[in-house]
Amino acid sequence: MDIKPGIKGKQQLIVTDDVTAASYGSGLVEVFATPAMIALMERTCQLSVQKLLDEGYMTVGSLVNVKHLKATPVGMQVECESELTFQDGRRLVFKVSASDERGQIGEGIHERFIVNREEFMHKLNSIK
Q: Is the backbone of residue 91 left (phi > 0), alpha (psi -120 to 50) or beta?
């Protein structure tokens, strides 16, 4: 696997009713939910490296440390960018940021680990 710092990712979405704080239950208003922003950040990081992994491997999130700086209303586009800043064996650390049409709305770091999907699921399913 050729995964080295500097790998970048970018994903976008339009804020719809199903990704608002009111819909998620994380708040009472119809603005882009913090959990939805975090999910977009995780997806951006995951997709940025997935194509570089050996067959049967994937990444799983292990740490999120982000700030949600500004609210984004329904109908506005949000773009997330990620950059792999550190790699140590299976551990990957990304810098993430999210912006809407008015500027930055979120920033932080996200950590993921490379795992063998079959082994991961086998271990998970053996815990009962």
A: beta
pLDDT of residue 66: 98
Tell me whether residue 110 is one of the annotated catalytic residues: no
Mean pLDDT of the chain: 96
DSSP state of 32: B
Helix, strand, or coil (residue 120): helix
Residue range 8-125 in CATH 3.10.129.10: yes
- Predicted TM-score of the model (pTM): 0.95
On whether the CB atoms of residues 59 and 49 are closer than 8 A, the answer is yes
List CB contacts of 43: < 8 A, sequence separation 6 or more: 11, 80
SS3 of residue 80 by DSSP: strand
Residue 2 has pLDDT above 90, yes or no: no
Which of these is catalytic: 68, 72, 81, 110?
Answer: 68
pLDDT tens, residue by residue, 12-22: 999 999 999 99
Domain positions in the chain: 8-125
Question: Residue 34 catalytic?
Answer: yes
Specify whether 68 is catalytic.
yes
